Amino acid sequence: MAIKAVLLDLDDTLWPVAPVIRHAESVLQQWMHEHAPVVAQNYNPEKLRERRNVLVSSDPRFQYDLWSLRHTLLSQVFDEHGVAAEKADQAMAVFADARNKVDLYADVKPALQVLQDKLTLGTVSNGFADLQAIGLAHHFKVSIAAFRFGCGKPDPRIFLAACQELGLAPQDVLYVGDDLLLDVQGAQQAGLKGAWMNRQGLKIEDERHLHIKPDAEFANLHDLALWL
User: Fold this and answer.
1) 196 has which bridge partners?
2) Whether the predicted pLDDT of 217 surpasses 80
3) Is the same domain home to 203 and 128?
4) Which of 83, 99, 115 is at the close of a domain?
5) Residue 224: closest CA among 18, 13, 10, 16
6) Where, if anywhere, are coiled coils annotated (predicted)?
């Protein structure tokens, strides 16, 4: 398999995302207690999540533009409680800053350096993490985020756009991510090779996933470097 570039997912591939989101929502809640107390009194993170889950079905864009989804929700609840509209922007800045305080998996920094010396690297993500703020941007030639691009995985367009920026044919590119449907199948359907980052040692048991055959499977980025 002649791989000339590797594209990586971010959340749950380079860092665990659940604790990051919990922390960011907690930081936002603390900020609202100080700057929008009437909202904080009526909406804790769980209630905001419930309302966000309802809002996501109201606009197809919210399926991939998670920044706009959260911003729209905050704008709505702030407006309903008579809080100035510009505070929604401030709240999102607070959330985004905390969202970028990630704890990388231990293998990530050393393995990225090894991989970077072997071939070209890039990222494609449905999230809105800021690789510059996180300190990883210098490893990647291409970084595409769904909320800026206009569609998200598994849409073939986002994978193909990354290949185009790399100047490579899809069959020369390997995409590595933790989600079998979005990442592995999505990449394969766009003509790329699709590899499963299976850090938890999971088995493919869900009937929705049984038909998916990853081109490779890795427990960490060191495995990827060895495979290459």
Assistant:
1) 177, 217
2) yes
3) yes
4) 99
5) 13
6) none
The residues, ordered by sequence, that sit 6+ positions from 152 with a Cβ below 8 Å of its Cβ are: 63, 64, 126, 146, 158, 182
In which residue are the tokens 């505070």 written?
87
Long-range contacts made by residues 65-74, C-beta under 8 angstroms, separation at least 24? 65/146, 65/147, 66/126, 66/127, 66/128, 66/146, 66/147, 67/92, 67/96, 67/128, 67/147, 68/147, 70/95, 73/48
For residue 192, give the CATH number of its domain.
3.40.50.1000
Alpha carbons 128 and 27: distance in angstroms, whole number: 17
Closest among 30, 22, 177 to 102, alpha carbons compared:
22
pLDDT tens readout for residues 141-189: 999 999 999 999 999 999 999 999 999 999 999 999 999 999 999 999 9
Kindly tell me if the per-residue pLDDT of 226 is higher than 90.
Answer: yes
Q: Quick one: tokens of 153?
A: 């995985």
